[in-house]
């Protein structure tokens, strides 16, 4: 049966915690990692409403974009509004994991999903992150050790290339060795030079997994002294990083692009700063409270930044720089990503029932002069 730890390990692979901002709090934040689960709910935020839904629908795990226990908490009580949801979830045995800013910046994370909905091409991070240090690990084994050694190395974290796992390469050859009187060779005899058929196995390994991988290889290998080589690889920039910038297939007026962006996000209104007739081709995207990406977007030649929240003076800065600024709302720029995440988890774990919260709503209502209230609920059903 799938456990909380199984899903949180997948989340770590999909949105590695190294992508999270230094101030963030990501990972499994609440609950028992070893608990078996059958139902998973995703949501933007753990609130009284989403917690009640999770308990009612018997979820074993909530994957909440925004983390719980983000700031120091000295009391967790059922009669305090800030912690009552946690008390209810704890009593029901519901765990909580949060990928937050790691999910924003992941290869197929929230910002990349926004780019797809906006029809952007040739997307790249606004603030790219250098690839983590990695190594090529080479080990020489007899054919009989091949599967055992590979399984041990893969289990310790070697062999991942992008979205692929258990990647390796094997080259046949011959090895020689001479064991002195203190040895007990697994093949051949000590006291003479032996020539044996071997495989050169190669696999990639990230720096933070290297020690574990080397230990696993040596434990699984039948030789007393396995021959292992470790080669550092050059670090490169990758498709991961904060924010996104891309281009439209054809330039469009800012006003026209703003309306199409609103429709793509399921909105009827969107805030826009800038000349509606100005031409837009390069578009920067930063979900949530992302107006601090404006300066980076300008340096990269963007004609507009779309984000969820922006301060008044940021709009003035955009106007002074001759750049458009579109503000779609925090909820609208991130809720759709939470729905996408539910689909990804369901496809990865077909034995689980996974759904995005049905009770979650944008806390902001938009009041019209007619006296009617309307809510923007992209994805609420």
TrEMBL record:
Keyword terms of this UniProt record: Metal-binding
Source taxonomy: Bacteria, Pseudomonadati, Planctomycetota, Planctomycetia, Isosphaerales
InterPro entries tied to this protein: DUF34/NIF3, DUF34/NIF3_bac, DUF34/NIF3_sf, N-reg_PII/ATP_PRibTrfase_C
Residues that bind a divalent metal cation: 65-66, 104, 330, 334
Record-stated family: Belongs to the GTP cyclohydrolase I type 2/NIF3 family.
Organism: Paludisphaera borealis
GO cellular component: cytoplasm
Designated name of the protein: GTP cyclohydrolase 1 type 2 homolog
Molecular functions per Gene Ontology: metal ion binding
The protein's assembly and partners: Homohexamer.
């Amino acid at each position: 049966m799938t456990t909380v730890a199984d899903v949180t390990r997948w989340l770590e692979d999909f949105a590695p915690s190294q992508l999270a901002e230094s101030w963030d709090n990501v990972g499994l934040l609440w609950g028992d990692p070893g608990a078996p689960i059958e139902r998973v709910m995703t949501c933007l935020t753990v609130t009284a409403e989403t917690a009640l839904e999770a308990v009612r629908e018997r979820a074993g795990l909530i994957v909440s974009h925004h983390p719980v226990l983000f700031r120091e908490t000295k009391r967790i009580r059922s009669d305090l509004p800030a912690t009552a949801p946690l008390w209810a979830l704890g009593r029901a045995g519901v765990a909580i994991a949060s990928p937050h800013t790691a999910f924003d910046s992941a290869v197929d994370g929230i910002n990349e999903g926004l780019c797809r909905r906006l029809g952007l091409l040739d997307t790249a991070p606004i603030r790219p992150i250098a690839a983590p240090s990695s190594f090529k690990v080479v080990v020489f084994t007899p054919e009989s050790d091949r599967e055992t050694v590979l399984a041990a190395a893969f289990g310790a974290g070697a062999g991942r290339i992008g979205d692929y796992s258990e990647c390796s390469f094997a080259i046949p050859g011959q090895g020689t060795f001479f064991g002195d009187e203190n040895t007990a060779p697994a093949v051949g005899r000590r006291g003479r030079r032996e020539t044996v058929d071997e495989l050169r196995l190669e696999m990639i390994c990230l720096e933070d997994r290297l020690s574990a991988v080397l230990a696993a290889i040596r434990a699984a290998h039948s030789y007393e002294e396995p021959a292992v080589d470790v080669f550092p690889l050059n670090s490169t920039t990758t498709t991961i990083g904060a924010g996104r910038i891309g281009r439209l297939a054809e330039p469009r007026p800012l006003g026209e692009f703003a309306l199409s962006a609103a429709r793509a996000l399921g909105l009827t209104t969107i805030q826009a700063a800038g000349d509606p007739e100005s031409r837009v081709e390069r578009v920067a995207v930063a979900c949530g409270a992302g107006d601090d990406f404006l300066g980076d977007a300008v340096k990269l030649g963007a004609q507009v930044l779309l984000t969820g929240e922006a301060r008044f003076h940021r709009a003035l800065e955009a106007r002074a720089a001759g750049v458009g600024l579109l503000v779609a709302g925090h909820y609208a720029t991130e809720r759709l990503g939470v729905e996408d995440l539910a689909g990804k988890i369901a496809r990865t774990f077909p034995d689980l029932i996974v759904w995005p919260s049905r009770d979650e709503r944008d806390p902001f209502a938009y009041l019209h002069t007619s006296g009617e209230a309307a809510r923007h609920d992209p994805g609420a059903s």
